[in-house]
Fold each of these.
Amino acid sequence: KVKLVVDKEEIIADNILYQYVADPIITNITPTCSLAAGGIKVTVFGNNLHAIQVAKIDVDMDNTDVVASSVPGKCTLKYDDGSSMVCLTPEIQLKAATDVATPIPVVLKLDENILVKNLN
């Protein structure tokens, strides 16, 4: 039997298969910046990355030069063992057109509620 309790709600099920997967651990991200045009391939290394349901990459909106970014880039697993994934950075709108070559720090959004930033 499997018993699951979430917020005072209890579910008990018979004959159910499940697999425990440890939390993901990010060990390295390269590169940690994008450019205004986006499309930069960012590789994320770690363990158990396949435990992440939804991974997206965006730019650090706290950066004073950024006005807006397009839809965050999606990340895909590179290997089935969960050791790395690849993300493409979104296009960024900057305050000044002359800043298009300025590196903009990226952030990872994991499972819609975890934000990984300050990656340098």
Amino acid sequence: MAVRQDTIVAIRRGGDKLVVANLEAAVYPDIEFGTDPAQPVDVVNHTWGNYFLSAYKGVFEHLASKGVAAPPAVGLQVMVHGTVPLGSGLSSSAAIVCASSLAVAAVLGVAGSLTKGDVAEFACSAERHVGVNSGGMDQAISVMGMPGVAMLVEFNPVRATDVQLPAGATFVIANSMAVSKKAETADRRYNLRVVECRLAAMLLAVALGKAPAEAAGITTLKQVEPAIIDKYGPGAEEQDKAVRELLHEGVYTPEEIEGLLQKPLSSMYEGNASALRVLGVVGPEGFRLRDRALHVYSEAGRVYAFRDVCKSEAAGDDKLCQLGALMDASHASCAELFCCSCAELDALVGAARQAGALGARLTGAGWGGCAVSLVREADAPKFIAALREQYYAPLVAQGAVKEEELGQCLF
């Protein structure tokens, strides 16, 4: 569902470099890059301009993948302004990458050939240049989102289907004020989860009878679903049973995984710089593969259950209660199995429920940022007032946020 916050990119040809500026220059100073689309993105010294550069590269890479001759690289002068809170779980990085991609495509004269699906696909790949193994959800909703309508986003190919909320329901977004720096912390958080999910998929495949060499080529848990169905049958409960039977509790060490797959982990991720960085920093904490797989399969089930409840013939209030329960279960799974929540988010979600939310969960990658609450539309003003008092009043008293800024934190 689209929110009113946005990111705008103005662009024109000029000079012999990529000059990227921001209206908030004191916070985001001007940055210059060369015009070579093959130049690498410096992920070690991360800057905000990396998001524009990744989008610039992504446009040229997309054209090459379609066999289209790219126009000559030229100097560009760029001005960026955004109102999407950074590190808030509202896809601020995807917003700048998608907006920049469209701007670059337009100034190069190739935008007319792009579909929304094209932009969502290549913007996802492009954002990985900043060092985050993005999965595509943020880019898809940034491009395809519509006001007042939830979207079921699916992949391969990327597509979005409208999901109409029950009458009388609305979402309220609240910022925990804990900033989630996804790119800077990726090796121990976001990218680590991507690695863990792939490793879980490989080990499930081996346990279900695939040869280790074949299993090593699997990249997603979804690819294992047919084998689970063959042995356990279809459905979320069967997936849960399979994971609990086939993956052990607790930590898998790199040595244990290499023994099961009969191959060094580094060779499985050859050419994947972000994954190799993860492997380089993982210590005795190892990989919690069972928990990650349980979360992914159950969360996928909740997504379709949410869609089904919205489409059902149940009474409106029953629908709202069911949807709220799904959101509560989602947050519990994010916190306990995927371990991507934080103390501030848990406190905010708890405060939202006390303030009258039917259900609440973190949104975005986690480790900070926003929570989204399902609220009866008629109760929204009362809910917002209660949440201001319960969660934000102490932050205002501490000087962590100003009273006049609360409209940007809670909407």
